[in-house]
Amino acid sequence: MIHFDNVTKVYANQNRPALDHVSVDVDKGEFVFLVGPSGSGKSTFLRLVLKEERPNSGAIHVAGKDLARLSNFKVPHLRRRIGCVFQDFRLLPNKNVYENVAFALEVIGKPRRFIRKVVPEVVELVGLEGKAHRMPDELSGGEQQRVAMARAFVNRPMILLADEPTGNIDPATSIGIMKVLDRINRTGTTVVMATHDAAIVDSMRKRVVELEDGKIVRDQSRGVYGQAY
Amino acid sequence: MRANFIFSEVWIGLRRNLTMTIAVIVTVAIGMALLGIGLMVNSQISGMKDYWADKVEVSVFLCKKNDPFPKCKGSGGVNEEEQTALRALIEGMPQVEQVEFEDAAKAYENFKVQYASNTVLLSAIQVDDMPESFRVKLKDPETYGAVIEQLEGAAGVSNVVNQKKLLENFFGLMEKIRGFALVIAGFLVIAATLLIGNTVRLSAYNRRRETGIMRLVGASNLYIQLPFVMEGVIAGLIGGVLAAVLLIVTKVFLFDGVQGYLGNSQLTWETVASVISLTMVFGVLICVLASFVTLRRYLRV
Ligand SMILES: Nc1ncnc2c1ncn2[C@@H]1O[C@H](COP(=O)(O)OP(=O)(O)OP(=O)(O)O)[C@@H](O)[C@H]1O
Ligand SMILES: [Mg+2]
To answer: Which part of the chain is the ABC transporter domain (chain A) (predicted)?
Structure first.
């Protein structure tokens, strides 16, 4: 599903590579934790999958497509098959829960009937039934992240990328977030989650890929966060 | 494509940047109106040139009794022989196509028509005050030089008036007005482009959250950019409509007002309509181009 072959990424005006000859394979339906210290290249990895950044060398395949040969014109179609969740939720403050989720479908031109049908289903899936008409500032951080997950998942992506989704949320609430991610993963969606949260990684017992200075230093199925921390 | 989604976005964008939008509309309106006036003057000039092309003549005025012109001093006005000799001279010139004699009575008729509204002048002038003249039409109006030179020296001639020269002065003035209008229009087009660029940049900044999410969920470039471009198009269209109103007012009050002095070359409504549609298309095109160019810089896709 995601295939990195010897990928190196050096940002402009930087001499140290953010990713250094990284090769990794993520299969369909897998759940992968991306761990490592700050600046190790986790977010860079996710941005490369989205083709928000281009690698300096190496090849990236996502959902069978060679990103180097994917024209700019087709990038939006790639992104429709990938959902994204971030630490800072990125909700639209002037739209309520329902509208925030529906926005993702409106802007890719889905018909209104379809939107009216699927949005409530997804809002329920993330556990926000009854709160569809709340505005983002009337929700807790955990609830806002659920909205973001609903928006990321509403178009049934093949891949869900989560960049520190529990970074702004207390441990107890994080467990609920992880349950939703697990539920999404069980529908067959591949999930890649970058995190610093050792407790979560240890409790989930999923595959762990550890980066350090842009290099993969560990790739372990059913792994833990790591001894060093 | 969900039209109502685009339109609500456009409406929000226009309202959020109201002052900038108004500035764009006013600049486009004045710029396009001046461009249109330039084009209208242009069509007026060529219409008048066509109208006058086969009508310009050289008027050879003859001495009257007690004529104040220095060349006529002492002579008791033109006599029979001089008049026949003059006609023979004119008809003998290779450049001349046709020559007509206008006597005092006919000149007075023409004068009365031309100054019909000026009763004071009309009551002061008598038939006898009007000079007689030969009206000379040239094969090629450009060749007046030699003709005039010869005729000015001839006996019995008080003075020679070349209509072409008078018209050329007038056309020169019209062409200056046209040039002025077009130059100012050019400056305003530049101003409009910069203003639109600024508006789009503000708009892109105001909506960076939305556009960021749109990019993330895979909205196509068209979908992301269309609201911005539509903002430009709508501002351009409103500016164009205002310009059209200005142009119609200009035609009715300015062009039709001076029509009497310009000869029979009406600025038709068809011309005005085509000028208006041209300026509209041009105005909207400027807005679209300016929006696109700015978007490419400020809205990474
Ligand atoms: N847009 C950018 N321009 C230049 N350098 C960048 C850019 N983004 C990231 N970097 C650099 O690339 C390296 C990796 O950054 P990245 O954001 O991938 O780390 P990370 O593992 O996500 O860190 P964190 O855990 O703090 O989010 C860092 O050294 C960072 O300074
Ligand atoms: Mg990061």
So the answer is: 2-228
Give B212's DSSP letter: H
CATH of the domain at A171: 3.40.50.300
Are A65 and A149 within one domain?
no
Which of B7, B214, B216, B299 to mutate to probe the A interface, most A CBs <10 Å?
A: B216
Distance of CA A151 from the midpoint of ligand 2 (Å): 21
Same domain for A77 and A102? no
From the CA of A45, give the closest atom in ligand 1. Answer: 18
B256-275 pLDDT tens trace: 777 666 555 577 888 899 99
- pLDDT at residue A139 in the model: 95
Angle A8-A13-A18 (CA atoms, 0-180°, nearest 5)?
A: 30
- A103 domain-assigned: yes
The per-residue pLDDT for range B177-186, each reduced to its tens digit, is: 899 989 998 9
Spell out the residues 6+ positions from residue A217 whose beta carbon is closer than 8 angstroms to its own. Answer: A36, A210, A211
CA angle B68, B72, B77 (to 5 degrees): 100
Q: What is the ipTM of this complex?
A: 0.89
Q: Is residue A86 part of a domain?
A: no
Residues A133 and A61 occupy one common structural domain: no
**Domain boundary pick from A109, A136, A156:** A156
Closest-CA residue, ligand 1 atom 4, reads A11
Same domain, A110 and A11: no
Q: How many domains does chain A have?
A: 2
Quote the pLDDT of residue B83. Answer: 82
CA dihedral B64, B65, B70, B74 (to 10 degrees): 140
> Using the beta-carbon criterion (under 8 Å), do B217 and A72 form an inter-chain contact?
no
Q: Cα of A127 to ligand 2 centre, how many Å?
A: 27
Distance from CA of A158 to the nearest CA of B (A): 13
Please report the residues numbered 190 through 229 in chain B whose beta carbons come closer than 8 angstroms to any beta carbon of chain A. 209-210, 212-221, 223-224
Distance from CA of A188 to the nearest CA of B (A): 19
Residue B144 has pLDDT above 70, yes or no: yes
Residues A113 and A123 in one domain: yes
Chain B residues touching A148 at Cβ < 8 A: none
A59 in Cβ contact with A5 (< 8 Å)? yes
> Which of A204, A191, A195, A187 shows the shortest CA–CA distance to A122?
A187
**pLDDT (tens digit, 9 = 90+) per residue, A125-137?**
999 999 999 999 9
Q: Which of B210, B218, B221 minimises the CB distance to A108?
A: B218
Residues A72 and A166 in one domain: yes
For A121, the domain range is 91-156
E-strand ranges in B140-186 read 157-162
